[in-house]
Amino acid sequence: MKPLIEHIPTHLWNSSNAIDLMSKAPNFTSQAVVCSMDIVNMYNNIPIEEAIETAMNLIDEHQPLTCNLRTEDIGTLLRFMLTNNIFQFHNEFFKQKSGLSMGSRISPILSNLVLDRLERRVLRKGLTQDPLFYIRYVDDTLAVFVNEQSADMSLTTLNSSHLSLSFTMEKTDPCGWIPFLDMKIKIEDGRLTHKFYQKDTKKDIIIHESSAIPRNVKMNTISSELNRANVLCSKQEDKLTATKFITEKFLGCGYNKKTIATAKQKRKNKINNSFPLYVNIPFVSDNFNWRMKHALQLIHPNIRIYTKENTNLRSFLTKRPTKDTECNKRRCIINNRNICERRFVVYSVICDICQQEYIGSTIRQLHDRIQEHMRSSPSTAISEHIQTCGSQKQLHVTVICQQRNEASLRVAESLWIYRKKPALNRRDECEQAASFISHYVDAAP
After folding, report:
1. What is the dihedral of CA 221, 16, 107, 438, to 10 degrees?
2. Do you find a cis peptide bond into 301, omega within 30 degrees of 0?
3. In contact, 139 and 116? CB cutoff 8 Å
4. Strands 92-95 and 357-362
5. Which of 196, 272, 322, 401 pairs with 347 at a CA distance of 20 to 30 A?
6. Cα of 286 vs its chain's centroid, Å
7. Is residue 89 helix, strand or coil?
8. How crowded is the C-beta side of 313, counted as CA atoms within 13 Å?
9. 408 phi/psi in degrees, rounded to 5
10. Backbone angles phi, psi at 280, to 5 degrees
11. In terms of Cα–Cα distance, which of 142, 113, 106 is closest to 8?
12. At what angle do helices 406-420 and 427-443 cross, to 10 degrees?
């Protein structure tokens, strides 16, 4: 589902993405107003069926990688997942009746898709004047309108275009600034300017100097915070103010001025030397390599060293992994190491003589499971077919898909059996798969 986000032109990945888009924005007139919009309780107010329908339409339109699942299969899985949100409160279990669940990984993606469809329908067709500039991070939106009347009209149209979503708008303060993400935005001389911003309610909880954490992690934390303050400001005086604020924050957590100055210098060296110089040296010992690294960095601060594999007698005598694709298991039917040792797979066995197919799944190595199918006692569907049709050498084994856990594997197997209805699968297996899938289709609202 996540690749669908790339087709949303107004979506933001982070603050740096917002700054890049603002730098490409056109010049605005003196009547233009900048404002931010938010949605009240967005996740719980997005209808599940609308989210599923939007996602399925975009899948059909853009054809992303779906791991051989049809759009209808994805819709069934989404409906099952979104309508079974169970949570516990005071030792009691509850089921969410409507809306997307907060904390779910799929909720932000579906919310973005629903809001994009709403924006395309309303902001481009429902208004007489489109926004001059419009970007959005999930439910936080930054927009520039021709004038204040156009902004109010946009808010009214958005609120009247959806039954459950309620939009709110925040306008600039007396100085012309509007907060958005971790920045403040303002129109100056027709251009969007920005500076570092932190909410008053945010607590300065960072790594304390006395904590038992490696020093390089602490230094990188200081460096990244200083870099963030520098990137988020478009004016030099704002950069100095933000740097001073970050410095005081780390001083309050036990860091001394020398440590912070070292982190600042590290950041400057990284900016001035964007292309590091890599030096390859043999590994002698940890102490030697550490001393060599610091000695080389005295010559050039952006030198990076890496060690190469030792070429010694042991490396020649040690048996290296073979690149042969043939399986080393005795009497292996598959005889292809690319798939023989794979686990948690849904597989297909096709008879080359009659083209009949069997679909199954296994959490063990695939060639072990296929070898079990060849046994005549107890008989299996494949072993019975071999006695009827011919030699086991006529069987062709392929992997349909691979999953991460057993639960996902069983769902995938049932979907494939339900879809293809393979002739070699026994009747009870097909009926069980059909019952499994139809149960969740019928249970979905």
Report:
1. -110
2. no
3. no
4. unpaired
5. 322
6. 37
7. strand
8. 0
9. -65, -35
10. -100, 120
11. 113
12. 100
Cα angle 74, 75, 78; round to 5: 85
Classified as helix, coil or strand, 93 is: strand
**pLDDT tens digits along 60-114:** 888 876 667 788 888 898 999 899 888 888 888 988 888 998 888 899 999 999 9
Which pLDDT band holds residue 177 (cuts at 50, 70, 90)?
A: very high
Helix (H) or strand (E) holding 150: helix 148-160
Closest CA to 44 of 164, 126, 204: 164
219 vs 227: CA distance, rounded Å: 12
Residue 251: is it exposed, middle or buried by C-beta count within 10 angstroms (0-12/13-18/19+)?
middle
Asked if 16 contacts 22 with a C-beta cutoff of 8 angstroms, the reply is: no
Instruction: Please give the structure tokens belonging to residue 305.
Output: 């060293």
Residue 381 has pLDDT above 90, yes or no: no
C-alpha to C-alpha distance for 54 and 73, rounded to whole angstroms: 15
- DSSP letter string, 263-318: HHHHHHHHHH--SPEEEEEE---HHHHHHHHHHHHHH-TTEEEEEE---SHHHHHS
Token pair listed for 120: 């395309």
pTM, two decimals, is 0.60
Tokens of 5: 């986000």
As a dihedral over the C-alpha atoms of residue 367, residue 371, residue 374, residue 379, rounded to 10 degrees, the angle is: -120
Name the CA radius of gyration of the chain, rounded: 30
The letter for the amino acid at 279 is V
In the chain, the N- to C-terminal Cα span, in Å, equals 21
- Concatenated DSSP letters for 338-407? HHHT--SEEEEEEETTT--EEEEEESS-HHHHHHHHT-TTTT-HHHHHHHHH--GGGEEEEEEEE-SSHH
To the nearest 10 degrees (0 to 180), the angle between helices 215-231 and 236-251 is: 150
Range 188-191 contact pairs with CB under 8 angstroms and sequence separation of 24 or more: 190/27, 190/28, 190/29, 190/30, 191/25, 191/27, 191/28
The two tokens of residue 444 are 């979905």
**Which pairing describes strands 178-180 and 86-89: parallel, antiparallel, or unpaired?**
unpaired
Residue 326 structure tokens: 């043939």
Task: Give the mean model confidence (pLDDT) for residues 286-312.
Answer: 72
Indicate the DSSP class of residue 196: E
